[in-house]
Automatic annotation (TrEMBL):
Domain HTH LytTR-type: 144-247
Record protein name field: Response regulator
Pfam family, one: Response_reg
InterPro entries: CheY-like_superfamily, LytR-like, LytTR_DNA-bd_dom, Sig_transdc_resp-reg_receiver
Species: Chitinophaga lutea
Length: 249
């Protein structure tokens, strides 16, 4: 059994989440519910839960500030939030889980399943990534957490050469001829890396523009990457690619 607490300033939202957990996640026991972020810090310190469902948008302290006060964090965390693009991007970059309100039962089961099946010891590094983004929102993240089939790996963003879609998975090709398969779609990966010099040049490829060595003309054309790989460019993305490769024109 997993001992969990639910932190959400909206009473109806916390009650709804507890009901869903009781119905769909029998391995999770909710030991406490807190509707006040300040009290939540004391509650978590006193009860030491294994899992915290943490709302992001709360008065006085938001979810990230709660975690900051509890650092170093020793529990798993699943965030709950209304759509907040900035917060979601930071959470994805850290390979942590979040649920959009109103919470969907299937997404809840999937998130809890990932927590219970986790074999990684990288929680502290994930939290550091998340909090560094929160503390310095204008600074580009230089590391990204990747949930691979073998466990979590944290890699430098500039070590990523290109990413290849494989259905609901994405294959990362890194420097040193290393490849990692992660359980994220290429669309999700593109959203995480959009602030960096990455571009979706094809429905199957996302490339690091710093690693492009040559563009070969054609209907869409193709790219020669720094590792010698040839990457197809779709006709619909050719114009944007050429604009990015020739910013002064």
């Amino acid at each position: 059994m997993i001992n969990a607490v639910v932190i959400d300033d909206e009473h109806y939202a916390s009650r709804a989440l507890v009901t869903l957990l009781q119905k769909h996640c029998p391995d999770v026991t909710v030991t406490a519910v807190c509707n006040n972020a300040r009290e939540a810090v004391r509650l978590i310190r006193d009860t030491r839960p294994q899992l915290v469902f943490l709302d992001i948008e709360m008065p006085y302290l938001n979810g990230f500030e709660v975690l900051e006060m509890l650092a170093p964090v020793s529990f798993d965390c699943i965030f709950t939030t209304s759509y907040d693009q900035y917060a979601i991007k930071a959470i994805r970059f850290s390979a942590l889980d979040y649920l959009l309100k109103p919470v969907d039962p299937e997404e809840l089961k999937s998130a809890v399943g990932r927590v219970t099946g986790k074999q990684s010891n990288s929680l502290q590094q994930q939290m550091e990534l998340l909090l560094s983004r929160f503390q310095q929102p204008q600074t580009l993240m230089n590391r990204i957490a990747l949930p691979t089939l073998e466990g979590l790996q944290i890699v430098p963003v500039d070590s990523i050469l290109y990413c290849t879609s494989q259905s609901n998975y994405t294959i990362f090709t890194l420097t040193g001829n290393q490849k990692l398969t992660i359980s994220r779609t290429l669309k999700e990966v593109a959203e995480m890396l959009e602030e960096h010099q990455f571009l979706r040049v094809h429905h199957s490829y996302l490339v690091n523009l710093h690693e492009v060595r040559k563009y070969n003309r054609g209907e869409g054309g193709s790219l020669l990457m720094s590792d010698g790989a040839a990457i197809d460019v779709s006709r619909s993305r050719k114009e944007e690619l050429l604009r990015k490769l020739q910013p002064g024109k």
